[in-house]
Design a protein that fits this description.
Blueprint: H1 2-9, H2 11-39, H3 53-67, H4 74-80, H5 97-112, H6 123-136, H7 141-171, H8 173-209, H9 218-276
Amino acid sequence: MSSIRLFNASPNYRYAYTILSCLRPSINRFYSSSQAKDAGEDSDLPVTFVEDDDQLAEREARIEQLRNKSRLLPQHRNMLHNQRPYGESQSWIHETVKYKRMMLGRYGLEESQVDPRICYPTKAEALEKAEYERVAFPKTLQEMMEENRKAQQEKAARIRTREEDVAKKMEKLDHWVADLNTRIAKKEAEARAAKERKDRLVEEVRRHFGFRIDPRDERFQEMLAQKEKEDRKKVKEAKRKEKEIKMMEKLKKRTAELENDGSKDGAKAKTEDVDRK
């Protein structure tokens, strides 16, 4: 074992040890021949070299390490040959239930050397799991399926209602577009009328002074404000008159309708009196 540690210690030591190992048969042969000469030169029996168990194990380990050309670590080489990485636990992780279950599932019963009973939960774990299932999922599978079916029906009903609403609005789209275009045209007409009115007022102010004046002049601004005020009064008065005319037309129309209804009621009453007589 000391020779193996020496072999693993350093490349220089490995090189020296390899040379000594290669020279060992020659050295043993030299000493054996010397002993044979001392014992008697007339002895012609062959010399047999017998290695003990330690030397044989040491030789096999050296051969195995020389044979490993991949330079992989032992645990990685074991994994490459579908063997358990470590023969013994190297960390507290190797003693956990999760790691042992993984070893059993990956390398099998014989190679992993793990008791298969570890894969089954204990009584406490089973009770804890049952309590978790009861709290996390209180409803049965049938109840969850029924809720899912109702949710799907409600979703389909919402989609159908939305589609019907969109279809109704699409039917009114042409009317909305025409209304929008009318309002846009009205706004543009009002803007043009306002511009024309402003230009007219500016021209009136210039004619009032009788000479060309800068629009930024205070006199021009005062006269323009006065003209705008008078113009607003005229517009307001025109709108009021237009409103009065519309109201009078509505009243006349309503009066005519009431008179027609009264004449119809009178004719009906006369007809009823004639019938009674």
